[in-house]
Amino acid sequence: MIACVRQKFARDCIVRIIVEQNIIRRCGILLPVASLPGSRGIGGLGPAAIRWLEFLCDCGQTIWQILPLNPIDGENSPYQSSSVHGREPLLLSLEALRDIGLLSANELEEVADDGGNRIDYNFLRQRKMPLLERAAKRFLAAGGDAFFGQFCCNEATWLEDHALFQVLSEKFSPASWVDWPEPIRDRDEKTLEQLRLRFADELAVRRVWQYFFHCQWEAVRRRAADLRILIFGDVPIFVSHCSADVWANRELFDLDANGRQLTVAGVPPDYFSKTGQRWGNPLYRWSVHKKTNYRWWAERLQRSLRQCDVLRLDHFRAFADYWEIPASEQFAVNGRWIAGPGEDFFHTIGSQLGPLPLVAEDLGILSDSAIALREKLSLPGLRVLLFAFDAYQPNSPFLPENYVENCVAYTGTHDNDTLYGTFFCDGVASKRRRLLLGEFLPKCYHSLPIHHALMRWIADSAARWMVVPMQDAICLGSSARTNLPGTAAGNWCWRLQEKDLAHADRKFLRSLRP
């Protein structure tokens, strides 16, 4: 019934991508899938994503950078997910499901919205999820299709735990898995088998959602390949404690006998936070990972590379050394640096998967060991223009004239304010930044609008790749910001509107890179 688009990238294609990554100057746009425009309350796959790719092509862009596609929970952050392998059902296209006969046009109207620029996740969970469940049950009632069974077999190593964890989390909500009945918490196999039988129908629905995502994303991948646009994905280094990954692999994380965290992840004071950040993710037992040849990580990266052409390794520093905070501490200040797995991690996984097209997210304060590791691996790092205006530093590595070739240059990231917000919406701080801009910005750019001037500035740098958040490409203010680190409310909700695309200067965007 469902036509699963299966695109297999041969090894010579992967090698071509890696070669191109190393020699071609590229320009692209950062926009999360959830932030795509549309009429169903949230961006997603299907027609919305295809239209976006065609817009990028028309603008001469050859990179689409996205944020993690994992299930979003709690605070709606893609960096705090219940699964590293699972994908968020809310991103599924209802139109694509209608087109294959699983939903009607009238049913789609149950999730119609006004096309506004804020995502209402509660509304979507109440309205869209029942429709997705209805579509999945119809798919199952019709016997599925020729590829569904093979998908479930191929993905069983993570899919079964993911589906069961999702069902149990709903049954025991709001309790964390560490507070579930002991036989379930500790994964007694007889108990789990009974649960699989008891919740067979609900588990099947969750398998179908993941299959739907696989099929819809493969269609997006094929169109991107046709347009020669690279999809630049994102791999958060840490996982959520409340996740199928930790529940099913307790030995890989720093937990006590009952599954509770002994230490948690975070960072001391850096560019984003003067007091540091206590993320709360469990830390890895790297010695245990090493004994398995990093199998869990190899499987994670392999699956990610089947869905993206290049991956950004979030918080790269932690592979060299990471900030360990006792779980009992409320803040991130009282921690210590611990050595990470280093070169051994990358060489071991590389020997299993072949060349790894990775970019190191190396922002914040780096240690000598982290810099040495990135250089030994020849990984591109990041340069963010907005960081040059945090202080008076004429020799700042974030000024375009100081960029190296092996880097990805940004105006800002999803954690920064927008360009317009930075220079015009932050009172005294904005005035100070404008003064610095007047001093740092070469005179040849002064006649351009500010967002064009800053984009042109980094486009003319030595950086091999440049990426601009969509908000900066069309000069939106602080209300369009994606995330404000260290805060919980109001993040991850901004969405592009169709009318915003009219503000994009396509001719200018086409001029940024050859």
Quickly list its features.
514 residues; alpha/beta; TIM Barrel; eight-stranded parallel β-sheet; 21 helices; disordered N terminus
Main sheet summary: 8 strands, parallel
Number of helices: 21
Give the termini distance in whole angstroms. Answer: 43 Å
Helix fraction, binned, reads: 40-55%
Derived structural class: alpha/beta
Which sequence of strands runs across the widest sheet? 9-6-3-2-1-12-11-10
Care to describe what's here?
Helix 5 crosses helix 10 (200-226). The protein is α/β, with parallel strands linked by helices and 514 residues long. The two termini are 43 Å apart. 40% of the residues lie in helices and 11% in strands. The protein has a single domain (11-380, 464-510), classed as Glycosidases (TIM Barrel, Alpha-Beta Barrel). The strands form 2 sheets. It has an 8-stranded parallel sheet with strand order 9-6-3-2-1-12-11-10. It has a 4-stranded antiparallel sheet with strand order 5-4-7-8. The protein is globular and about 70 Å long. The chain is built from 21 helices and 12 strands.
Blueprint of the fold:
Blueprint: H1 11-23, E1 26-30, H2 47-58, E2 63-65, H3 94-99, H4 105-108, H5 121-141, H6 148-154, H7 156-171, H8 182-185, H9 189-198, H10 200-226, E3 230-235, H11 244-248, E4 263-267, E5 277-282, H12 286-291, H13 295-307, E6 310-313, H14 317-320, E7 321-326, E8 336-339, H15 343-353, E9 358-360, H16 368-377, E10 381-384, E11 407-410, H17 419-424, H18 427-440, H19 450-459, E12 465-469, H20 470-473, H21 506-510
Helix pairs in contact: 5-10, 7-10
